[in-house]
Design a protein that fits this description.
The chain has helices spanning 13-27, 39-46, 50-62, 79-89, 103-110, 130-143, 158-167, 185-197, 212-221, 237-247, 268-281, 338-350, 355-366, 370-395, 421-430, 460-481, and strands spanning 66-69, 73-76, 116-117, 180-183, 203-208, 224-231, 234-235, 251-254, 284-288, 313-318, 330-333, 401-403, 410-414, 433-434, 436-437, 450-454. It has 494 residues and is an alpha/beta fold. It has an 8-stranded mixed β-sheet with strand order 4-11-10-9-8-5-6-7, with helices on both faces. Strands 12-13-16-15 form a 4-stranded antiparallel β-sheet. A two-stranded antiparallel ribbon has the order 1-2. A hairpin with a 3-residue loop joins strand 1 and strand 2. Residues 80-98 and 483-494 have low confidence and may be disordered.
Length: 494
């Protein structure tokens, strides 16, 4: 590819490469489906670094001009790919009714002192080990003072990755440090996987319902979401196989342990069945294990990654729920060559996670402080889980049903027939109580008859007071609807 590079120009070199390739695509000189030169080859031909060419390709892919595939290379996208990106990359303008379930609304409510919010699946601030972590922070500054504030390794500080490798044994994973990528929370881990492995217009399978942040992230990137039904054992393998055959997805996103929002955990037998289906179809799986440490009644099931023998599973976790969300530290585990693709995306995103918090966390984990902290946290959350179960039983009408989770942070409640979740949401806000309406968790179909209630951040007396208000409001809605007929109790999944 004969490109002209002007090293004296003020325009960055990667933009010179990207714009010239873009013009060739626009003019038809590079038709749809044309394969672009490998990054290494083009860098050698132009006398540029591979990072410069990689950045140019990433720019083109972000704008929908090219498509990149792990192990296959980069190709000129179909015209509709660019159109899809331009349509979906514009700022979203959700309908006023949909705003009730967005992440920004949930986080805004969490900071309103006049609102008792059960909307955000958040850790309790009183559990944050401020003093112990402060001592670890001081130790990190003393030990690493000469290198602490310089640029660090994109994959994460070696001291932390070694501690994370030991930490993951709690979840039954034997992972070498070189296969661990440190991220700015689990949310960035999701973002990196989507950037590396999928392109605008691709199909991604998710559980139905699923984590609302994943729904919003995929919509912004222009991906096609397909929900796969779940039951009391988790994702259904028959429905997964059918969805793969029908939609040819690029990726499956799943939360096997204490699923958000339902609280259900995938049984070991179900995990084996899901992995068999994924392996048969060559489907990559992104496993979100952010709640796997928060188990209250029995040991949590091992993650899918612990059973993964073929490198199908990309594992994701973070310290936001079990330690402190403000650390913004998470991790991704992937086998080669997927790890290298994620590493490149991380480098382009922000070079590396903050070293100070990384090394402080390494010190904290190395001192053995996390295990007793986790025991205390689980004991507290078990008490609050039980308090919410009792409050639901006492305050909600018998026509409502729910599943009591064995771990995680949330209850998933099916409202009585005729009670609209969004109407209840608005009425509850007027009384100073908030929850997450169920429609935000369902791609692409909305549901108006479920709500998610998060219990960890509130003391039992507060939970009792808040659910009493919600129960009274539900009763009023029922009275207006004139529908008091009983329904069979069960696990409210869909």
């Amino acid at each position: 590819m004969h490109l002209q590079i002007d090293r004296q120009a003020r325009q960055p070199l990667y933009l010179q490469v990207a714009e010239q390739i873009r013009e060739r695509i626009r003019s038809g000189a590079l038709p749809a489906g044309s394969r672009l030169p490998p990054i290494r080859q083009l860098a050698r031909e132009l006398g540029l670094t591979r990072l410069t060419v990689h950045t140019a390709y990433a720019e083109l892919q972000a704008d929908g001009w090219i498509e990149s595939f792990v192990g296959r290379g980069s190709f000129v996208a179909q015209r509709r790919g660019a159109q899809v990106h331009r349509q979906t990359a514009a700022p979203l303008s959700p309908e006023p009714r949909a705003a009730a379930g967005t992440l920004v609304e949930i986080m805004r409510l969490a900071h309103r002192p006049d609102v008792l919010s059960f909307a955000q699946a958040a850790a309790a601030p009183e559990t944050f080990p401020v003093r112990a972590f402060g001592r670890a922070l001081q130790a990190a500054i003393k030990r690493y003072e000469r290198t602490l504030f310089d640029y660090g390794a994109t994959e994460g500080e070696a001291a932390l990755r070694e501690q994370l490798a030991a930490f993951l044994t709690i979840r039954g994973l034997q992972v070498p440090p070189e296969r661990i990528l440190v991220t700015n929370g689990a949310q960035q881990g999701i973002d990196l996987v989507l950037r590396a492995l999928v392109r605008p217009g691709d199909t991604v399978l998710v559980e139905q319902p699923t984590y609302l942040g994943m729904v919003e992230r995929m919509q912004i990137q222009g991906l096609r979401l397909v929900g796969v039904p779940i039951d009391e054992q988790g994702l259904r393998p028959d429905a997964l196989a059918e969805a793969i055959t029908r939609h040819a997805p690029r990726l499956l996103y799943t939360i096997p342990a204490f699923h958000n929002p339902t609280g259900i955990s995938m049984s070991p037998a179900r995990q084996e069945a899901i992995l068999r289906v994924a392996q048969q179809h060559g489907l990559l799986v992104l496993e979100d294990d952010i709640y796997g440490l928060l188990s209250y009644d029995a040991p949590a099931p091992l993650p899918l990654k612990a059973r993964d023998s073929g490198g199908q599973v990309i594992y994701l976790s973070s310290f936001s729920k079990a330690l402190m969300p403000g650390l913004r530290l998470g991790l991704v585990v992937a086998d080669a060559p997927l790890f290298d693709e994620l590493l490149s995306c991380k480098r382009l995103a922000d070079l590396h996670a903050p070293q100070l918090t990384q090394l402080a966390l390494a010190e904290y984990l190395g001192r053995g402080a996390f295990a007793p902290h986790l025991r205390a946290v689980c004991a507290l959350y078990r008490e609050r889980r039980d308090a919410m179960a009792k409050a639901l039983q006492r305050s909600f009408p018998r026509e409502a049903s729910w599943f009591t989770p064995q771990g995680g942070l949330c209850f998933w409640v099916a409202l009585p027939p005729g009670v609209d979740a969004l109407e209840l949401y608005r009425a509850a806000l007027e009384q100073g109580v908030a929850f997450a309406p169920g429609q935000a968790f369902f791609p692409p179909l909305a549901t108006q008859d479920h709500i998610r209630l998060s219990f960890a951040a509130h003391a039992p007396a507060v939970i009792e007071r808040g659910l009493a208000i919600l129960g009274e409001l539900i009763g009023r809605h029922q009275a207006r609807q004139g529908r008091q007929r009983p329904v069979c109790a069960g696990v409210p999944l869909v």
